[in-house]
Amino acid sequence: MDIERLSHLPEKKRRELQRIAQILFDKFDESLKTKLSEKAKRGRILKLILFGSYARGNWVEDRKSGYLSDYDLLIVVNYEQFAEKYDAWEKAAARFAQEFEIAGHLSAPVNFIVHSYEEVNSLLARGWPFFVDIARDGIPLYEAPDHPLASPKNLAPEEARAEARWRRLCIPYVVAGGNSPGSSPAITTRCFRIALMAPGSSACLDRFPQRSILRKMLPLSMRAAIIHAFNASTGRPVR
Questions:
Q1: Which one, out of 30, 97, 127, 175, has a CA that is 20 to 30 A from the CA of 153?
Q2: What is the pTM of this model?
Q3: CA-CA distance, 168 to 204, in Å (whole number)?
């Protein structure tokens, strides 16, 4: 863990991040031990990166309103089969909820996303702002040797303008969808992340609802809501 880059955090926060990292590795290793095939046992966590307000140093703890900034983490694994839908992550999420809400061992909620090394580097090479920001401003809590991140692509001016347009279009509908009956705060948070991850191209407005990241990170009902929103906003059907 890069203690020097975490020096802006109070000692309590640094201890909590160590606890979070240990839980993630423990749950991942426990899941690997239950697998029978060698292929299913080859999973590795390659990177654990803190991003967002705790990395930037502008986190919020407003006890009066009850608003608390989350610990935001990107987990990078070696193969896609160990990414977002892997069973270890559901168990880790349940453990973090318990640690925060019941045991009181964590002073803030934990939100994490999981992507393969290949996917993260592909998105960096294409200049996706969400991952570019993480690569630039994130703080590694763990890094396996010999697995560098790709050099981020700089968006051309027209791409940057299109990306800004994407955010203006997407975020209002994502908020509405995330706050719909039956949705959870975790889904709302992920919806925000989806909006921020998206590349800013007009073609993306047509293709994004079918892309693998959206399929992995949102339930069918939420995808349908976003597709409907794009249909209404752009005047062209998203199939």
A1: 175
A2: 0.71
A3: 14
